[in-house]
Amino acid sequence: MGTEALDSTVPPRVSMVMPVHNGARWLAEAIASVFAQDFTDFELILVDDASADASPAIMAEAAKRDARVQLLRLDTNVGLPAALNHGFAAARGELHSWTSDDNLLRPQMLTRLVATLDANPHTDIAHADFMTIDDSGAELGLSRVGPVERLLYGNNIGACFLYRAHVTEALGGYDASLFGVEDYDFWLRAARRFTFVALHEDLYLYRKHGGSLTSQRAEQIQALTAQIVERALPDTLPARSRAEILVGLALRSQRRWRLDLVGRALRAHPAPVVARLPALARWSLVVARNRLAA
Question: Do 91 and 174 meet the contact criterion of CB atoms below 8 Å apart?
């Protein structure tokens, strides 16, 4: 890969942000997947969130080799959502996306998402299916994104997306207090104001591994998820739908059975709770075993 010529007076169409905190293991591969895009009119904003491993050297080398790279260095570790906000504050493109230092873009990702938004000028956010991979890059299975109408039931927007810069501006970026669910919160807020289009093509590789933030902070993420979903429930939501969402949140808890959620679900509408009694009973046994083991 040679150095790309870049006219700094002409903003790129796409700004891709990659926050990095001690992500050296897969960082070079992640950066290479951005440079391998069929669509080349982009800038890559690497946000070094006070890394203490080899990440700064890898990022510096990328910036040296390609003029489309903008490198930001944070002196203290601020966490993923705040690092994203630093990156997007420096973004010049009319279209925004971000990726992680352990995930990979398919070569056609930007081409297809840009084309989708261009073909739908009144749509604000495009998102696409993605493949889950393991530590070694072996494919584990395709994740199909869902319609935004089902967003309250789970984060079905997925890991592969592109949205217009005015979405970032209108929402004020990502909530730094919601580390671990900042993306889900962003989509929940966006769904109240903007339009989405789903593209059912495999355009991204999402790596699942023991060191990922989701794996390390599962219980805290589940609690935050319940918080942001309950906050997003509209007053006009039918009682049965409210109960289904609440009992679903309770069942996703790995270490504790959220009896408060189940109680609110029962008060909203008992039928969904009754229908999930076998699953609730199984989860109560799991929770009991976890408490004994704690």
Answer: no
How far CA 16 is from CA of 39, 144, 163, 265, in Å, comes to 12, 22, 11, 40
Cα 275 versus chain centre, distance: 31
pLDDT tens for 113-162 read: 999 999 999 999 999 999 999 999 999 999 999 999 999 999 999 999 99
CB-side exposure of 85: number of CA atoms within 13 Å?
Answer: 16
Please, what is the average pLDDT of the chain? Answer: 90
Backbone angles phi, psi at 129, to 5 degrees: -65, 160
**Spatial distance between the Cα atoms of 230 and 98, rounded to a whole number of angstroms:** 26
Which of 204, 203, 206, 113 minimizes the C-alpha distance to 164? 113
Whether the pLDDT of residue 282 is over 80: the answer is no
Q: Which domains does the chain have, with CATH numbers?
A: 14-215 (3.90.550.10), 233-293 (no CATH)
> Do 195 and 124 meet the contact criterion of CB atoms below 8 Å apart?
yes
Average pLDDT (232-261) is 82
**Amino acid present at 67:** A
Q: What is the pLDDT of residue 290?
A: 61
